[in-house]
From TrEMBL:
Name of the protein this chain belongs to: Uncharacterized protein
Organism of origin: Altererythrobacter epoxidivorans
Domain of life: Bacteria
Length: 194
């Protein structure tokens, strides 16, 4: 009985160690390969990224499918799938995956930036303004904001959409108002103040 009890606790300890190594793989990608496949969660994302870098699409596709099956909500996994589709030349499928990712995780700044740039390229000014508002709301990287804010708000239609969103949700307005004078010309600032 005592041996069974010790074996049980040793097994629990091993599982806990493997789970911690899996979590640590997010910060230290090189240890992702140490995690057994049955325990991968965070390590799977790193394995997919490594497969993408080495252009090994078949293992990456299996890993992404498993990630999406295990955790269907995070949009980051769909972005990985979109990258795979783009590498395989499936542009249409890649665009669909990016749109799905943007709807699922508006707090993921890289996803919002990708969709913002797609909206600008497609001439969807209100869509670009909504993505810009999401980036400001999540307090994305200031350099990204400095780069894209003037591009998006140069259009009167985008500025109007953005101002409407700003008026509806004033929680992040103070951050925007403090940073905007260094990013925008006086004419654009005037349009936003109206």
């Amino acid at each position: 009985m005592r041996l069974a009890w010790l074996t049980f606790w040793a097994l629990v300890a091993c599982i806990a160690v493997v789970a911690q190594v899996d979590r640590e793989a997010r910060r230290k990608p090189h240890i992702a390969t140490l995690v057994p496949s049955i325990f991968t969660g965070f390590a799977s994302e790193e394995k997919v990224r490594r497969s993408l870098l080495s252009r090994a699409s078949d293992p990456a596709r299996r890993e992404v499918a498993e990630l999406i099956r295990a955790r269907p909500i995070p949009g980051e996994h769909l972005i990985l799938l979109a990258r795979l589709e783009a590498l395989a030349g499936n542009t249409e499928a890649s665009l669909v995956d990016i749109q799905r990712a943007a709807h699922r995780s508006w707090r993921d700044a890289p996803t919002q930036l990708i969709v913002l740039r797609m909206a600008l390229a497609a001439g969807d000014e209100p869509g670009a303004a909504r993505r810009l508002a999401a980036l400001w709301a999540i307090q994305a990287d200031r350099e990204w904001l400095r780069e894209v804010t003037p591009l998006v708000l140069a259009s009167p239609q985008s500025a109007e959409t953005f101002a409407g969103i700003l008026a509806e949700d004033p929680r992040w307005e103070r951050n925007f108002r403090a940073a905007a004078p260094s990013m925008l010309d006086p004419e654009t600032l005037g349009r936003l103040a109206e």
